[in-house]
Every structure is written in structure tokens, then in C-alpha cells.
Specification:
Blueprint: H1 2-18, H2 28-51, H3 62-83, H4 89-95, H5 97-115
Helix pairs in contact: 1-2, 2-3, 3-5
Length: 139
């Protein structure tokens, strides 16, 4: 899905770069398309993490915090980017604080990702469990 979406994104982004109207300060369509794709990629990452568990606590991995940061920023600014084309310059200035706040939250989440220690996931089959429920039955 990702490999199919990337060429489509590059084609549309290239089209909007080459045919950009110089009177506009912000291209809402490529930014909105980027937000949609990033949200889809983040959701698919979380779906993969749920189906193929590598880490017992997902929030202990750096990738979790990076993906959460991307998803928070993309979802917080999506409607701002969609409506940016239809807003006047004064209205953009009034609503642009949404972008600023979501950018701060994204940077805080990325900071968490770089602060937590590296965690090399251990395969489930090699993990030691002290609880009887998690042990393989003896044959």
C-alpha cells in the first residue's frame, strides 16, 4: 500500500509544484494529501504492531513515539490545511496557532523518542516468563 501511494503522491506533488499559482502563499491540496497519507501510514503501522507483537510494551520503543508525533501533527493540522485555501489572510493568522501548538506537541513527542534508551526487541519465543500461563505445555 505504501509503495503504491508514494508514486501517486510524488506525481501530484510534482504537478502542484510545476503549476503553482504564485498568488497563493500556501498550497492546501499537497499539504492535505500529505496529511491523509501520513495518517494512513501511521494507522497501518499501529495495525502491524498489534498483529505482529515484537515489544511487550509498545511505548518503550522509539518508533512508537516517532509515529505518534507524526500522527498527532498530521491529524491536528489536517483540517487547517484543507481549509487554508478558503481562508483570508487574517483568518489564517487567527487559526495558525493550531499549527504552532501541534508542532510543539510533535517536537515534545520526538524529544521523548530520543530520550528513551534504545530497546532491542527480543523475539517472543525467547522471552522468559515467570507466570505459568505463558509457559509452553510439556509434551
Amino acid at each position: 500500500m505504501i509503495l503504491a501511494a508514494l508514486p501517486l503522491f510524488y506525481i501530484l506533488a510534482g504537478y502542484y509544484i510545476l503549476n503553482k499559482d504564485q498568488s497563493k502563499l500556501f498550497d492546501a491540496v499537497p499539504a492535505s494529501l500529505e496529511s491523509i497519507l501520513m495518517i494512513i501510514f501511521c494507522v497501518s503501522f499501529f495495525f502491524e504492531q498489534i498483529t505482529d507483537v515484537e515489544v511487550s510494551f509498545i511505548y518503550s520503543s522509539k518508533t512508537f513515539w516517532i509515529i505518534v508525533a507524526i500522527m498527532v501533527y498530521s491529524s491536528a493540522t489536517f483540517f487547517l490545511f484543507v481549509s487554508a485555501e478558503f481562508l483570508t489572510q487574517e483568518e489564517r493568522k487567527a487559526y495558525w496557532f493550531i499549527n504552532l501548538i501541534s508542532n510543539i506537541i510533535k517536537n515534545l513527542l520526538l524529544t521523548i523518542a530520543f530520550i528513551i534508551p534504545n530497546h532491542k526487541p527480543q523475539p517472543i519465543s525467547e522471552r522468559r516468563y515467570d507466570d505459568e500461563l505463558f509457559q509452553k505445555p510439556a509434551l
